[in-house]
Design brief:
9 strands, about 100 residues, four-stranded antiparallel sheet, mainly beta, globular, five-stranded antiparallel sheet
Amino acid sequence: MTTLYIDVKGLTGDVPVEHCLKINVNGETTLDIEGAGHFTDSTLAENLGTHKVLPIGSHDVYFASGTYSVKVEVGKQIGIGGNPQPGAFETRMPEAE
């Protein structure tokens, strides 16, 4: 299992496509929000919590406004895309211990 982080930085506004990442996985993948954020739906109105498990396939994952990190435990491989708000999402690997 591989760990990476998605940093959500100052995500604002009410345009759903800018709050969405298209995530493709070929092994079960877990996402956990660390900080004051939550997953939402395409209306940006629902609080869907801070934990999400993605089965194999393609998923539209919506993020609430704010600044926080998402810990991603990748089962096998992951692809991240979409048309998010410029500068609002950044991926990083964990720091070496």
